[in-house]
Write a structure and sequence with these properties.
The structure holds 3 protein chains of 3 kinds. Chain A is α+β, with helices and mostly antiparallel strands. Chain A is built from 4 helices and 9 strands. Chain A is elongated and about 90 Å long. Chain B has a two-stranded antiparallel sheet. The radius of gyration of chain B is 23 Å and the shape is globular. Classes of the chains: A alpha+beta, B mainly alpha, C mainly alpha.
């Protein structure tokens, strides 16, 4: 048996062993990393049911969904008016920036303005898109109730206490805010007239 | 770029020199047989146990508070790992099978050391460090077994912590320190969890010392003779890297067979009674430690007097430390020592018999068998200092 | 060389013997009566039938808290539809485990013991599915006439069992025995399944792993022999 033949056989075996070993190592990593992904029961808690008839007109409640805080606001007709007419002040008035600020039910211009299936009931994730604080609800217009924490042309909405981001009453982020995006929406549907299933 | 980076690190650590002298060019006798594979296998299993353990800890909860159905938060968390965590069942079974695999491999490794005289000079300290490793392994296994909080977990911990009560004067105090209370309970669970995490990390450090000590005196070989470094050694790489890799392949075949097809190993790896939630008001009909601790359990039970039993059990482990100094023969390997060879084989058999007795329910016959096996076990060590006087060793290879 | 072969042979003989003896030794230390052999099957039809027996009969007294209503839909081996699960669970949430209505105190009063949770019962008894099947089909009259009917069981350790025959109405006459045996087999299979719900997936994965390891070990063996040719030459 010549030396050359031996060495090519040897090299082949090294490569074969190394290749199979790499496959084994990779395959072994799968269950370990996989175990760190959310567990079956964690994922099962993905949907939350809520009865919107419990929210009084003009009121905001905070509920939990997937461990996150969620605003449910019953907007008055006046609030719905104040959502219009200031698109030029918003970073992303039509919620086009990405997946998290739009949902499949946002299929008309109205749905993009009001960011809700039923315009009175707004459901958004209560986490400021800057660094995650829960913004403060400041629904009335002007500075009468809020002093100079809000600008003089304040039309109502949210103000984040951590780094000063502003959102309008459809939770769309105002230009000049550190937050990059509108408050996130999610897919939800009405099971009945008032009961909504979120997630 | 890789060479550049490696050189940068090497200039600041001497890494290349370390890799060459300790790994790739490290000289090893060329006549080692497969009994020398078990050291690298033991290291592999240690890494596997630490890896699987770390991931299990992400979900395990050491809490003995009661939950619905007589279970506990701890037991619930283990079932959650088995049912809901992605691949949790796999990681749990790897850890449980791995514990037993660790002892199989280490017992074979120790057996090699005994048979071929690897404990004799200049490797006495290497052997002693090894005995320390064995003890820490046994501690880690004992602490770990409490964690699922099944019947066997609870009662095994109760029995063993009771043993410490036998120690004169300090007994009561030791028991309380171990248990954190008047009986095994939540405080016990939490501290055993902490220690179960600590011990393997201690092991990692001590194994480092074990390997360093080995590298100073170099490996023994099946003939037990001092070898000529020039003629009779070969570099660790590629010879023993490929041989060890093959050994790993064979090991994994056995290990994965158990993990995927027989993880409970008919009750030997995961005991049946441990699927019953711990009940401090009812002892299971048959308490036995996991198989790898059974030989010492038998020695304990052989003596009716509680203190004597504990002392002899301790002695059976302690005597391992002085083995290098008991054996006075100049010849190392059992291959060339006909008397020693019979003795060490008998010793191995006695350990297996002791294990069988410890696993079985105590009967009169088994008590006698256990006593005989205990005598053989100690007899091996007590006879050793005298063997060299009358043993006619065979001529060693190389005309030494 | 020959010496090593003999040693390896002797070693593998002993190891092989021990491996073969292991299951025998394991069951031997359990003691007791020889169990019947149950035809445990983990196919969906059997498991579903067993689930029905469990919810209709066993859940009168026993829980299986680690099995949730959601599991009944999500485990492909059970595969109930959302409607079937909604029927079973009533007002319980999907995430709830299967729990009995019988309060532990009432149970202790009626039967003397609290009926254990059955989630892992197949793993908590020596003999597993065979034991459960034997138990359920093992009720008989006490030959000594001391223990009342319904509480004497051939396979229960000590024979006197607190659980009265749960399938008593199925009787032990010839025509009804077939039905009794079927229901016992079905529910035992169900209990074996829920004791370790990933077992089928585990074995499936295991076959791939073993196949791969055989290949890998073979390649490593070839590599070892090839590399060691250098040494053998001297």
């Amino acid at each position: 048996m010549s030396d050359k033949a031996d060495h090519s056989r040897r090299n082949f075996l090294y490569v074969a062993a190394g290749g199979l070993g790499a496959v084994a190592a990779g395959a072994t990593a799968v269950p370990f990393i996989g175990s760190m992904l959310p567990a079956a029961d964690t994922l099962a808690a993905a949907k939350t049911e809520f009865d919107t008839s419990t929210v009084v007109e003009g009121q905001l409640v905070v509920i939990q969904w997937q461990g996150k805080p969620v605003f449910v606001v019953n907007r008055t007709a006046d609030m719905l008016e104040r959502v219009k007419g200031h698109d030029d002040k918003l970073k992303d008035p039509n919620s086009e920036a990405g997946e998290e600020v739009q949902a499949e039910w946002m299929d008309s211009e109205d749905k993009r303005t009001f960011r809700a299936i039923k315009p009175e009931i707004l459901i958004v994730v209560a986490s400021c898109t800057h660094l995650g604080c829960i913004p403060l609800f400041k629904p009335t217009a002007g500075q009468k109730d809020w002093g100079d924490s809000v600008p003089s042309d304040w039309a109502g909405g949210w103000h984040c206490p951590c780094h000063g981001s502003y959102y309008d009453l459809s939770a769309r982020v105002v230009k000049g805010s550190p937050a990059p995006q509108n408050l996130h929406v999610m897919s939800y549907e009405y099971k009945t007239d008032s009961i909504v299933v979120i997630g | 770029m890789k060479t550049g980076l490696f050189k940068w690190v090497d200039d600041r650590t001497g890494l290349e020199g370390i890799i060459k002298s300790q790994l790739t060019e490290y000289p090893v006798p060329k006549n080692l047989n497969y009994m020398w594979n078990f050291g690298s296998l033991a290291l592999l299993v240690l890494v596997l146990q630490i890896l699987t353990g770390i991931f299990l800890v992400m979900y395990y909860k050491p809490d003995a508070s009661l939950t619905y159905g007589g279970y506990t938060v701890a037991f619930d968390s283990v079932e959650r790992i088995m049912r809901d965590i992605n691949f949790g069942w796999l990681i749990r079974y790897m850890h449980a099978v791995g514990a037993s695999a660790f002892f199989v491999v280490v017992y074979m490794h120790i057996g090699r050391g005994l048979y071929y005289g690897s404990y004799k000079g200049p490797r006495e300290l290497l052997w002693i460090i090894g005995v320390v490793i064995l003890l820490i392994m046994q501690g880690a296994a004992f602490f770990g077994y409490l964690l699922p909080w099944g019947q066997m977990s609870f009662w095994g911990a109760t029995v063993i912590t009771n043993l410490f009560g036998a120690v004169p004067v300090l007994g009561e105090y030791l028991q309380q320190v171990l248990r954190g209370g008047f009986a095994v309970g939540d405080p016990t669970l939490n501290r055993f969890f902490s220690l179960h995490y600590l011990f393997p990390l201690l092991l990692a450090a001590i194994v480092g010392g074990h390997i360093h000590a080995l590298h100073v005196v170099h490996s023994n070989n099946p003939d037990g003779v001092d070898i000529d470094h020039e003629k009779d050694t070969i570099p660790f790489h590629p010879y023993y890297t490929v041989k060890d890799a093959f050994g790993v392949g064979v090991f994994l075949l056995g290990y994965c067979y158990f993990v995927f097809f027989q993880p409970e190993a008919w009750g030997y790896f995961i005991e049946v009674d441990n699927f019953v939630p711990a009940n401090n008001l009812q002892t299971p009909a048959h308490i036995a430690p996991v198989w790898y601790l059974t030989p010492w359990y038998t020695i304990l039970r052989t003596f009716e007097n509680k203190l004597l039993g504990v002392a002899m059990m301790g002695a059976s482990l302690a005597i391992l430390f002085v083995l290098p100094f008991l054996d006075r023969s100049k010849v190392r390997s059992a291959r060339y020592r006909p008397v020693f060879r019979q003795m060490v084989i008998l010793f191995f058999i006695s350990v297996v018999v002791l294990g069988y007795c410890g696993h079985s329910a105590p009967t009169a016959t088994l008590a006698i068998v256990g006593t005989i096996a205990t005598c053989v076990y100690f007899g091996f060590f007590l006879l050793l200092p005298f063997v060299h006087k009358f043993e006619k060793t065979k001529p060693l290879p190389g005309g030494e | 060389m020959r010496g090593m072969m003999m040693k390896t042979l002797r070693f593998s003989l002993i190891a092989g013997l021990m491996l073969v003896m292991a299951p025998a030794m394991a069951s031997a230390s359990g003691g007791g009566v020889a169990l019947k052999h149950a035809e445990i099957s983990l196919d969906q039809e059997t498991i579903k039938a067993g689930l029905t027996v469990f919810t209709d009969v066993c859940m009168g007294c026993h829980s299986a808290k680690y099995v949730t209503y959601r599991n009944l839909m999500d485990y492909p081996e059970i595969g109930l539809t959302r409607e079937e699960v909604d029927d079973l669970r009533g007002s319980n949430s999907l995430m709830e485990g299967l729990k009995t209505e019988l309060a532990p105190e009432d149970a202790a009063e009626s039967y003397g013991v609290v009926p254990p949770d059955l989630s892992v019962i197949a793993r908590a008894r020596r003999g597993g599915g065979d034991y459960l099947y034997s138990l359920l089909t093992g009720y008989e009259e006490d030959p000594d006439g001391k223990v009342e009917d319904g509480n004497y069981n051939h396979f229960f350790p000590g024979n006197r069992i607190a659980m009265p025959d749960p399938l008593a109405w199925l009787g032990h006459d010839d025509d009804e025995t077939a039905e009794l045996e079927k229901q016992a087999r079905d529910v035992s299979s169900f209990l074996v399944f829920i004791g370790d719900p990933h077992q089928l997936e585990r074995k499936r994965l295991g076959r791939w792993v073993m196949g791969f390891l055989v290949l890998l070990t073979f390649v490593l063996w070839m590599l070892k022999k090839e590399v060691w040719k250098d040494v053998k030459k001297h």
